[in-house]
UniProtKB/TrEMBL annotation:
PANTHER family: ARYLSULFATASE (PTHR46018:SF3), ZINC PHOSPHODIESTERASE ELAC PROTEIN 1 (PTHR46018). It comes from the Archaea. The keyword Hydrolase applies. Gene3D superfamilies: Ribonuclease Z/Hydroxyacylglutathione hydrolase-like. Keywords: Hydrolase. GO terms for molecular function: 3'-tRNA processing endoribonuclease activity. This is MBL fold metallo-hydrolase. Residues 18-219 form the Metallo-beta-lactamase domain. Pfam families: Anti-Pycsar_Apyc1. It comes from Halorubrum ezzemoulense (Halorubrum chaoviator). Coiled coil: none annotated.
Length: 255
């Protein structure tokens, strides 16, 4: 499968980073993970397009992860697509109902299904096998691990893990152990005092004893601009010995 970073940014916009959004594609199926502001434009620039995405999986409900959800619904309706499924943690139905309450003219335009999932058991989303674990953030949410439809591997052993917004902690590291690629929140450089998000040093320390092929630092605030190399080096110096890269919009990773 292929991962495309659609949005590597945060709630504070910068020109070259849309808010959170990631596209998974195995050639036959596509899954959008999070749908922040700017993601719809990035998605329109892919071969998949918004016409090809009928399932969105949300990590949590902060605005920079859901802002383009109704614009996606409207774009699919106008393009003649008939279905959209939104999958996410508890409260996802309330979120979608609230959005449609404000923009009620969109209600009923397409076949909209909303499904809430938990970390208790694996599930399928967009044809991909998925398992979840709770994160440590200012809002309840999930990190996810993915296995493509063509793989015999269980989701818990899948090649891709995606943290959503979370502090770095041992449970998240164990969840990602063995993944070919981990996309992890690393919102600020080390000299910023922050909670609910990790710094490079805390992330590197948490991942020191696990095996991950490539670590992509994402959900990058403007504070990180021009300091990406410094941040990747700090992760390695703190103990992580895999490849470390700063995510960028448009980056594609084959898994």
């Amino acid at each position: 499968m292929e991962l495309t970073v659609l949005g590597s940014g945060s709630a504070m916009p910068v020109p070259d980073r849309a808010q959170a959004g990631y596209l998974l594609d195995d050639g036959d199926r596509s899954l959008l993970v999070d749908c922040g502001s700017g993601v719809l434009q990035r998605l329109a620039g892919t071969d998949t397009g918004y016409e090809g995405v009928s399932t969105v999986l949300l990590t949590h409900h902060h605005l920079d992860h859901v802002a383009a959800l109704l614009p996606l619904l409207k774009a699919r309706w106008l393009a003649g697509e008939e279905h959209l499924e939104v999958v996410g943690p508890a409260g996802t139905k309330s979120l979608v109902d609230g959005l449609l309450g404000v923009h009620d003219y969109l209600d009923g335009r397409i076949d909209l299904a909303v499904r809430e999932v938990s970390s208790a058991r694996p599930f399928a989303a967009g044809g991909f096998d998925v398992t979840a674990r709770e994160t440590r953030h200012s809002m309840d949410g999930f990190a996810y691990r993915f296995s493509p439809p063509s793989s015999d591997a269980a989701a818990a052993d899948g090649p891709l893990a995606l943290s959503g917004d979370t502090e770095a902690f041992a449970g998240m590291a164990r969840f990602a152990d063995g993944a070919d690629c981990l996309v992890h929140d690393c919102s600020f450089p080390d000299d910023v005092d922050v909670s609910n998000h990790p710094t490079p040093m805390s992330l590197g320390e948490s991942l020191a004893d696990v095996e991950v092929g490539t670590l992509l630092l994402s959900h990058l605030y403007p504070h990180t601009g021009g300091r990406e190399r410094e941040m990747t080096e700090s992760v390695r110096e703190a103990g992580f010995d895999g490849e470390v890269r700063a995510a960028a919009d448009g980056l594609r990773v084959s898994l």
